[in-house]
Automatic annotation (TrEMBL):
Keyword Glycoprotein applies: no
Name this protein carries in UniProt: ABC transporter substrate-binding protein
Lineage of origin: Bacteria, Bacillati, Actinomycetota, Actinomycetes, Kitasatosporales
Domain of life: Bacteria
Keyword Signal: yes
Organism in which the protein naturally occurs: Streptomyces roseus
Keyword list, A-Z: Signal, Transport
């Protein structure tokens, strides 16, 4: 029996603008291997960029119809609020403070992560406490400084966070010895480590000092666009759990209710695959980073991802 669906106006504000423009404006990082990084050939790659491609495939029928907007960490939400981006997928942590204070909504978690430390293998650091009193490279506009204070303060310890606008600047300050460690989400640190001249001379401490659920964000004024982005994310997870064919058959009929047609799910999965495909391609063994899925496994495999039913 065909599912009962509600048809809403196809041309809601953001979706109409995206279609008139012919491109999705996606705010991404200025360059983090595994999440959003521009290759020498000009193509943007990474988990975050594949999420943007999935949304473009659903909304425009073309996963490459994306206008990439690399932004500084402290401009990720401002780009949405100012109307310079339709979607932010930029290693951005979902917090109550951000959603309460800014005119944005988080549409869903793209990657569960935690704040970590990249250090030199020969420095003798075995845990965060060993870094007390040292200068640490961080990104300006991130939650890192707050996380460091929350971890070190109660222990009677302190560090000196040194903020940089650009990921490359932060990594360079660590690489040249100006800072004893580079502090960032552990997934992003895996990419940073891979970009160093001798990755084996550096390692990521086996400790996370915070919870960092990275998420896709949209402007709060368009609930229809919010709904569209949220269900694109849920489709990727459901397709891993149910198989792509089963997930598409359940999701396609609901397309008109979110401003799409009845082939939208087919396009998304053809463009980027399931969440497992996206993760493996950008962060798993196939990427060269080999970041264990850990919390990013489905709940059936001990992770936290639990896809919402598509029926």
């Amino acid at each position: 029996m065909r599912a009962c669906v509600v048809t809403r106006p196809a041309a809601t504000a953001t979706l109409r603008s995206v279609r008139v423009r012919g491109a999705l404006r996606a705010a991404v990082s200025q360059g983090i291997h595994g999440l959003s990084l521009r290759t020498p050939g000009g193509r943007w790659t990474g988990l975050d960029t594949d999420i943007a491609r999935a949304v473009a495939a659903a909304a425009l029928g073309d996963p490459e119809a994306v206008d990439w907007r690399p932004v500084k960490a402290d401009d990720r939400l401002a780009a949405l609020e100012a109307g310079r981006a339709d979607l932010t997928v930029c290693n951005l942590t979902w917090t109550m403070g951000r959603e309460a204070a800014r005119r944005v909504l988080f549409a869903g978690i793209t990657c569960y992560d935690g704040e970590g430390f990249l250090v030199r293998a020969d420095a003798g650091f075995t845990g965060p406490a060993d870094l007390a009193g040292h200068r640490l490279a961080v990104h300006r506009g991130c939650t890192t400084a707050v996380n460091l204070d929350a971890w070190y303060g109660p222990r009677g310890l302190s560090v000196e966070p040194v903020a940089y606008d650009d990921p490359a600047e932060a990594l360079a300050a660590y690489a040249d010895g100006s800072c004893a460690a580079y502090v960032l989400d552990r997934t992003a640190l895996a990419g940073a480590r891979a970009g160093l001249p001798s990755p084996r001379d550096h390692h990521i401490l086996p400790v996370s000092i915070s919870r960092e659920p990275m998420a896709a964000a949209v402007h709060e004024t368009d609930p229809y666009w919010f709904r569209l982005v949220r269900w694109v994310l849920q489709l990727l997870l459901a397709a891993e759990y149910e198989t792509p064919g089963a997930a598409a058959r359940r999701a396609n009929p609901h397309g008109p209710a979110v401003g799409l047609d009845e082939r939208w799910a087919d396009r998304v999965l053809a463009a980027v695959g399931t969440y497992a495909d996206v993760y493996e391609r950008n962060l798993g063994a196939a990427s060269g980073l080999d970041v264990p899925r850990g919390l990013n496994r489905l709940w059936t495999a001990g992770g936290l991802h639990y896809p919402v039913p598509l029926h």
